[in-house]
Amino acid sequence: MSNTAPRQTLLDSRLHAYRDDLADERLRGTVAARRYVAGKPGRVTSGLAPVRRAPDRRTEVLTFYHYGEGVLVFDRADGHAWCQSLLDGYVGYVEENLITGSDVPMATHFVATMGSYAYEAADMRSPAVDFLPRHSPVVAVEIGVVTRDRPYVRLDCGRFLPLGCLAHAPPRTSDIAEAALLYLGCPYLWGGKSFLGIDCSGLVQNAFRDVGVIVPRDVDMQLGDIGVPFDPHSLGDLRREDLIYVPGHVLIGLGGDSTLHADGTAMIVRRQPLSAFLAERGLRLSDCTFRRRAA
């Protein structure tokens, strides 16, 4: 019999809220911490809320929470809230003033365009005070405020959105390739997942959201979670919607040699032949990992 204590299961801290001093109550018995707390419900009140690995504006942005997103808040200190997204489970630090401390109300509408500016008044000539990305759930408390023949809605936060950018249900497209192509030409932004800036795995996550599926945020998470693996014999075996992974990067197949990706070298979402991408990086088809959406 060994006297060695059992090893603690190592959980991904991006998806499980735990620190040496504090952990999610649901992890009691799984991870060691001096204190355990139940997360308190909260809601993101900024269009784009940067999520960092530490409560410091100078640290790396890992991802963004978006307007209306529900979170669990485990700690508030030093001007930051330590949260977990209720959308994709991502854990990190957000500036405290970007998170409310209340339950998430039922959405009345969703931003159905690639995003919309929110205004100080029911008038697009008034100051734009925020940008709400595609899919953002909103609560309209007044509908049909008309200025110069254009209708607006007043949100529960007091801002105004043009009615034309909203729908009563989340936006949908026919497949992930069509959804990803909506971001063609967008600037590349590490950690980004909106029309104002997006990275490669953020593009994949947003594309799947358009077909009603929530997938993990980061490349390594997606690699073991989405679809089924397969090995093409040639570029001709690749289909639309196939995902092509190389270390630290993912491309979306458009069929055959054609792909779309958020390219951190060109700093833009662009179409590119897979053969050209691999040649640029000194890679071969055999260096890729391929995933295909399950039927």
Report on the structure:
- The chain has 295 residues and is mostly beta strands.
- The protein folds into 3 domains: 23-100, SH3 type barrels (Roll); 109-167, SH3 type barrels; 176-292, endopeptidase domain like (from Nostoc punctiforme) (endopeptidase fold (from Nostoc punctiforme)).
- 9% of the residues lie in helices and 38% in strands.
- It has helices at 176-181, 200-209, 219-223, 274-280; strands spanning 23-24, 36-37, 40-44, 48-52, 61-66, 70-77, 80-85, 91-95, 99-100, 109-111, 115-119, 128-133, 137-138, 140-147, 150-155, 160-162, 166-167, 193-194, 197-198, 228-230, 240-246, 249-255, 258-263, 268-273, 289-292.
- The strands form 8 sheets. It has a 6-stranded antiparallel sheet with strand order 20-25-21-22-23-24.
- The longest helix is centred in the last third of the chain and has 10 residues, at 200-209.
- Mean pLDDT is 95; it is low at 1-7.
Can you give keywords for this protein?
SH3 type barrels; 38% strand; 295 residues; mainly beta; disordered N terminus; 5-stranded antiparallel beta sheet
Topology record:
Blueprint: E1 23-24, E2 36-37, E3 40-44, E4 48-52, E5 61-66, E6 70-77, E7 80-85, E8 91-95, E9 99-100, E10 109-111, E11 115-119, E12 128-133, E13 137-138, E14 140-147, E15 150-155, E16 160-162, E17 166-167, H1 176-181, E18 193-194, E19 197-198, H2 200-209, H3 219-223, E20 228-230, E21 240-246, E22 249-255, E23 258-263, E24 268-273, H4 274-280, E25 289-292
Parallel strand pairs: 1-2
Antiparallel strand pairs: 3-6, 3-9, 4-5, 6-7, 7-8, 10-13, 10-17, 11-12, 14-15, 15-16, 18-19, 20-25, 21-22, 21-25, 22-23, 23-24
